[in-house]
Protein: FMN hydroxy acid dehydrogenase domain-containing protein
Organism: Acinetobacter nectaris CIP 110549
Amino acid sequence: MTIQPPLTKIPPHLLTLLDYEKQAQNHLPASYWAYLQSGAMNEVNLKRNLQQFADISILPRVLNDLTHGNTRCKIFGQHYPHPIFLAPIGHQALFHPDAEQATALAAEVMQSNIILSTFTNTPLRALKKENPFKWFQLYWQGNREKSLQLIRLAEEHDYKAIVITVDAPHKGIRDTERHAQFDLPANMHHPHTKTHLVAENLQPHQHPLFDGLMQLAPKWADIAWLIQQTKLPVVLKGIQHPADAKISIEQGVQGIIVSNHGGRVLDTTPTTLSSLQKIRQVVPHNYPLLLDGGIRRGTDVFKAIAYGANAVLIGRPYIYGLATAGALGVAHVIRTLKEEFEITMALAGTATLEDICLDYIASENY
């Protein structure tokens, strides 16, 4: 198949995020597409993350007064125009020459909060310093000193929160990706980190995974230490167990992104909505919870908020937009999802995010 160059304008047939998914494949090498689309092992979670939303029914109310309706939300004292955030995705130069620079431009135009990955191909300083809608995602760098260096860099360039990914100390076994023989280009530039940590000085009797790589992963004590080193809110991404949510609060973590990493790390874990519902039950009612995984329609955003999310993250969908048409494509993906969400809110009878709750979700026996 001939790889098409990115589009310079949005054609009329691109109306939904699914349309963008179909289109994006035309603009990427097969191995890059496999990397983007693959899930762990049998890809059960990958499918469940999408199916979970289809299995839930919205129960609308009518004749409500929707005057002054809006999609605003408030997290860590900061107001956001809408609750659709961009998840951290590394190596974006795979998908478009402008990489994260294009994504950041689209996010700025659409006032969407962007979470920049440690594995960015674009330096932290390249995102406008005055942009209030940007967080930095940290993959632990094997020790406290190197990790703190990246935190200091994020502080210097006015990022508003630190997101620490805790569910991927080792990459998942992704068969689709391996069958496609995907590997990162040898010349790909990552300005802030190496793509692989290596355990050194292992003894013959030591296990390369348990005594090696896993010893470079963060522990709860490292999270508690890092929280003491920064004034920025610290968010943990990848929490699924309610007990870990409780520990997070005890350690001073200020928010949680409920995520199974888009089904890319450990297969057959609970869906993100299931985990969200259980975690919301054990944290304070005003504790920030964000959901990551499976959002494809405005109705999905609505359902996530009804189950207790303060905001949602999208990942693959905005990369579809990036691969298709660069910044223009990303902006159109965000706008499409936002408009769908606004219309869903109106048709369900809700004027604000605070109105959205389980009263608007039909029970299984309805």
